[in-house]
Amino acid sequence: MELNWVEYIGLAAGTLTTAAYLPQVYKTVRTKAVSDISLVMYTAMTAGIFLWLVYGIFIKAPAVIAANSVSLLLVGGMLRLKIKYSKGDKP
Hints:
- The chain is mainly α.
- It has a domain at about 35-90: Monooxygenase, CATH 1.20.1280.290.
- It is about 80% helix and about 0% strand.
- It contains four helices and no strands.
- The chain has helices at about 5-20, 20-30, 40-60, 60-85.
- The chain is elongated, with a radius of gyration of 15 Å.
């Protein structure tokens, strides 16, 4: 599939929105502090991003597929960190 200017806008948007997760992932890996991170939010976000990825695959949209593939890794990783590091948190 040839990329046109609209796809480039989608790729730019996907890059920016996906990159927005990087500081939180970095900070969480570094500090292991997850008490202020919402389990419900990251569970819902992971499920939603997964569905966006499936949608992108069905409509064959490279920007949607690329952005949501990376986002799923980052947000799913945060969800995993939240679950892993919450075991030591006090209620």
